[in-house]
Amino acid sequence: AQSVTQLDSQVPVFEEAPVELRCNYSSSVSVYLFWYVQYPNQGLQLLLKYLSGSTLVKSINGFEAEFNKSQTSFHLRKPSVHISDTAEYFCAVSDPGRGGGADGLTFGKGTHLIIQP
Amino acid sequence: ETGVTQSPTHLIKTRGQQVTLRCSSQSGHNTVSWYQQALGQGPQFIFQYYREEENGRGNFPPRFSGLQFPNYSSELNVNALELDDSALYLCASSSGTGATGELFFGEGSRLTVL
After folding, report:
1. How many CB atoms neighbour CB A101 within 10 A?
2. Terminus of chain B with fewer CB atoms < 10 Å: N or C?
3. Which among A25, A24, A20, A105 has a CA at the least distance from the CA of A64?
């Protein structure tokens, strides 16, 4: 069975500072990896995903994540955060070999990113 | 383009009652998944519906059941409610059942069981 660990439940950061949100997964098979973001009073939105190919993936709003197979990690980074990045961030995995999304996504518990002015 | 909408947004039930939650999928999407998000936890997969059939299921008991209609909207039914069923229930739609697919989530239905 797959599992996802987000090591920090809350990360406070000053505006314009860099940030890293950590995500580790446990799986004996190959995985697809995702970061979803949940802004206050909104549904979850896909931020970025790794399926194959380049291990570094980027979002349109400056976030990036790197798939590290040996470390079983998929940490999310941004070089300079803004107040508008305040949100809950969820790391998730799925199993590409299970005939589609029949097992759904396995999510971590989430990391609350708090941007301080 | 209409996004995923869920109803009701909030509801309160008592232990032992039954509840039905509704979801309208995003235009063009034929697959609906349901997730339960307890306070302080990440979403947990309940089940997925594709072409009106249950296509996959997480570790939830049979008192959690669902339906998908020809217009791809969906219902989640929970019987014999327990206190631990208190949570935010999220519906997500997608085009196809693939594990690579992007899920589009609604804002959720918050259920409180007293």
Report:
1. 27
2. N
3. A20
> What pLDDT digit, counting tens, does each position of B37-77 carry?
999 899 999 999 998 999 899 999 999 999 999 999 999 99
Write the pLDDT tens digit of every residue in A14-64.
999 999 999 999 977 788 999 999 998 888 999 999 998 999 999 989 999
Give me A98's structure tokens: 């299970």
Contact with chain B for residue A41, Cβ under 8 A: yes
Inter-chain residue contact A104 with B45, CB threshold 8 Å: yes
Q: Who's near B95: CB < 8 A, 6+ residues apart?
A: B28, B29, B30, B31, B101
Rounded distance between C-alpha atoms, residue A116 and residue A94, angstroms: 33
**Chain A neighbors of B96, CB-CB under 8 A:** 100
Specify whether the CB–CB gap between B102 and A32 falls below 8 A.
no
Six token digits for residue A8: 């920090």
Q: How distant is the Cα of B86 from the closest Cα of chain A, in angstroms?
A: 17
Q: What is the pLDDT of residue B44?
A: 96
Task: Please tell me if residue B66 touches chain A, with a CB cutoff of 8 Å.
Answer: no
Pick from B15, B31, B26, B12: nearest CA to B109: B12
